[in-house]
Amino acid sequence: MKKYINASFPHLLHGGDYNPDQWQDRPDILAEDMRLMQLANCNAMSVGIFAWAALEPEEGKYDFSFMDKAMDDIYKAGGRVVLATPSGARPAWLSMKYPEVLRTNADGSRNTHGMRHNHCFTSPVYREKVANINRRIAERYKDHPALLVWHISNEYGGRCYCENCKNAFREWLKNKYKTLDALNHAWWTAFWAHTYTDWSQIDPPMDHGEKYTNGLDLDWRRFVSYQTTDFMKNEIAAVREFTPNIPVTTNMMGFYHGLDYRVLAKELDVIANDIYPTWRGTDADIHTAMLTAYTHDLCRTMKHQPFMLMECTPSHVNWHDYNKLKRPGAHELSALQTIAHGGDTVQYFQFRKSRGAGEQFHGAVVDHEGSENTRVFKEVSALGARMKQLDAIVGTKTETRVAILHDWSNKWALDSAQGFQNKNKKLDSVQHRFYEPFWKRGINVDVICPEDDFTKYDLVIAPMLYSVSNAQGEKLAAYVAEGGTLVCTYATAMVDDTTLAHLGGWPGAGLRKVFGIWNEEIDTLYPEDHNTVATDMGNFKAVDYCELIHAEGAAVLGTYQSDFYAGRPAVTVNSYGKGKAYYLAFRDTGDFTDAMMAKLMGELHIVSDFDGELPHGVSAHSRTDGKSVFVFLQNFNNASVCVKTAEKWQTVEKNTPVTGDISLAPFETVILKKAK
Ligand code: GAL
Questions:
Q1: Rounded to the nearest whole angstrom, what is the distance from the C-alpha of residue 54 to the centroid of ligand 1?
Q2: Mind giving me the DSSP string for 186-244?
Q3: Where are the alpha helices (DSSP H) in 505-621?
Q4: Which of 71, 161, 530, 669 could bond 336 through an S-S bridge, CB–CB 3.0 to 4.6 Å?
Q5: ∠109-110-112 over CA atoms, to 5°?
Q6: What pLDDT is stored for residue 600 in this prediction?
Q7: Residues sharing a CB contact under 8 Å with residue 67, sequence separation 6 or more, in sequence order
Q8: How many angstroms does the Cα of residue 18 sit away from the middle of ligand 1?
Q9: Strand 445-448 versus strand 641-651 pairing type
Q10: Is the minimum distance from the CB of 21 to ligand 1 under 6 angstroms?
């Protein structure tokens, strides 16, 4: 039932990026770090992330002294190590001797040495050098009792346009399409005489080259995910050779646009994420909390198991436009929110502030001042003490009956489409708009992809699912036919998975009969325009997109009130097999989505595990071990609130009985349990 990150250490992990390699001339500070780590109630340190230059100062000459010491010291202090491979940045000698490892930009220029994440993912030399250093590290520490998890590289991202990468792209395409005819058809290259007659003519999309072949754009983005994953697999294979049983992860960046994280996820044992929300200590935090929860839900759903929060800041970052401090209490609140949504770790960038260079003023557990007497340190330590009392929650799962579909390929296809609102199609904001009604009512939501099993959900919401293959269309149809409730919106199934328009009327991919509608046209409104949609729940404002649909069997639940399509359907529901398919043909400003989702929650009896009514800005998300349900009641208001419950709860930490009125101080979290 429970799924631990590493069963040898069944506790919540608390700690952070730790860089003893930067302090090798300060044994006093390294010793102090261990004392502070214990005082901060930290038990997991991420070591070696950018330490290649220290580990291999000259080609083939290794120096593991700082790492040996860190592994031993951390273990002696009761901690464990999340051990990194150093590929995110490399020593200068490597770039100088093998310039092919440096990244090439879309304009053909090659980067000079410096920065980080500045390498080619295809370069055979870089792959060999990375595998070599990874093997050396793995071989050295394979039996070290501190080794808990592999932290593979750091925030993979970006792309390279060198000849090696272009050739690899062409090979990937050959493998996918087999013939140029098939590729030319899928990309519709007869348009503007773009027909390819030889594979070598194909280049990635570039600003000064091809940029309007949508199918090329989509395949290039898919290739970048594939190639990055292939690079990562090379890294993983090197460490698995020595440590087949140590779990591997890499730190992701939530909904980062550049990579389909689900492709990477297949190769990992556990998902890890880095997140730096803009907590302000104002009412704006409630929206931020909702967005942050949505990202956590993605991370949990990618493997349907607890994930790691690999990086967050205990106080502030140095790269936002305004680097405001987290207000007192806000850090504990945001950290516990991670656990509420299925995270089993709270780790920081960074444990000790670096003295110089680009991130010297980034928040950290230990300040330049150096002691345990800072506000931030005390808050981190108090959080760690609290986390120690939450062993019961480690490894537990999150049960959901609702899923929102987010597919990277769909987002890329939509973004590259020329039309609609060109600058921003607003897929992200419409997903958030559907997520919010569930979040604020304390209902768990999974963030799934087309490959997930839909049948375990009572409600699947797929906003702006623009790109749908025939196979995906069949799967959605089968889900509804078997009793599921599906909600789709404007811009559904307009193109297939190569971006070719579906012929025969939208929604395509066989979904026209499922929704019982035909979407004839899509009207993109100017920002100052609006329409009104009348429903039996009231009248709602329509903005941005209004589709002109025909009901072909579906019942009409709402109609447009103005413009030349006044009286035409704007919301429909169709019974298909044992289920129902809802089509929302317009974009609202949030109130309609909320009312509609509330209505569906009522019809499908989807309720929170917490019985009480939640005030604005209070969330209640749950996890379960099968016997008990654990609810995190969280107040994101910078003001006290009172929540009422009729049920009999106990606090997880002290087993104190709780019922009736629960008062929550600003930013307070109360963690409750009851028998399931
Ligand atoms: C992350 C990165 C860390 C650090 C941090 C600063 O993106 O992985 O190394 O730079 O940002 O917030």
A1: 19
A2: HHTTTGGG---SSGGG-----TTS----HHHHHHHHHHHHHHHHHHHHHHHHHHHTT-T
A3: 511-515, 591-604
A4: 669
A5: 130
A6: 98
A7: 20, 21, 47, 48, 51, 55, 137, 140, 141
A8: 12
A9: unpaired
A10: no
Q: Could you confirm whether 647 is annotated as catalytic?
A: no
- Tell me the C-alpha distance between 258 and 2, whole Å: 32
In DSSP notation, 414-454 reads HHH-SSSSSS---HHHHHHHHHHHHHHTT--EEEE-TTS-G
Query: Quick check: pTM over 0.70?
Result: yes
**Bridge-based pairing state of the strands 579-584 and 569-576:** antiparallel
Q: What is the model's pLDDT at position 297?
A: 98
Pocket lining: 353 vs ligand 1, CB cutoff 6 Å: no
Q: Is 277 in the pocket of ligand 1 (CB under 6 A)?
A: no
Which element (helix H / strand E) includes 368? none
In the block, tokens 């193109």 appear at 495
Q: Within 10 A of 88 (CB to CB), how many other CB atoms are there?
A: 22
Angstrom CA distances, 127 to 55, 231, 240, 276, 544, stand at: 17, 7, 16, 30, 47
Contact between 227 and 264 under an 8 Å Cβ cutoff? The reply is: no
Mark the ranges of the chain whose per-residue pLDDT is less than 50.
Answer: none
Taking the centre of ligand 1 as the mean of its atom positions, its distance from the CA of residue 349, in whole angstroms, is 6
For ligand 1, atom 3, the nearest C-alpha belongs to 349
Rg, the chain, Cα only? 26
User: Which amino acid, one-letter code, is at 254?
Assistant: G
Alpha helices in 441-584, H assignment, sequence order = 470-481, 511-515
* Per-residue pLDDT tens digits for 130-142: 999 999 999 999 9
The answer to whether 124 and 233 are in contact (CB under 8 A) is no
Index of the ligand 1 atom closest to the CA of residue 313: 12
Q: Which of 56, 235, 311, 436 is catalytic?
A: 311
Cα–Cα distance for residue pair 440/482, rounded to 1 Å: 29
Here the tokens at position 434 are 């559907």
To the query of whether residue 379 is one of the catalytic residues in this protein, the response is no
Residue 659 is inside which H or E element, if any?
A: strand 657-664
Distance CA 501, CA 215 (A): 11
What span, in angstroms and rounded, lies between the C-alpha atoms of 630 and 673?
Answer: 4
* Angle at alpha carbon of residue 576, lines to 573 and 577, rounded to 5°: 150
Element (H, E) at 295: helix 284-303
Rounded CA-CA distance 426/310 in Å is: 28
Torsion angle of alpha carbons 238, 243, 248, 251, nearest 10°?
A: -60
The pLDDT tens digits for 529-562 are 999 999 999 999 999 999 999 999 999 999 999 9
Amino acid at 251: N
Q: Is the minimum distance from the CB of 154 to ligand 1 under 6 angstroms?
A: yes
Report the run of H or E that residue 62 belongs to, with start and end.
none
Closest CA to 171 of 131, 219, 99: 219
* Separation CA 158–CA 257 (nearest Å): 10
C-alpha distances (whole Å) from 458 to each of 202, 486, 605 are 44, 9, 10
Q: Residue 53 to residues 95, 131, 208: CA-CA distances in angstroms?
A: 12, 15, 36
| 672 in Cβ contact with 650 (< 8 Å) | yes
Two structure tokens written together for 116: 């980080």
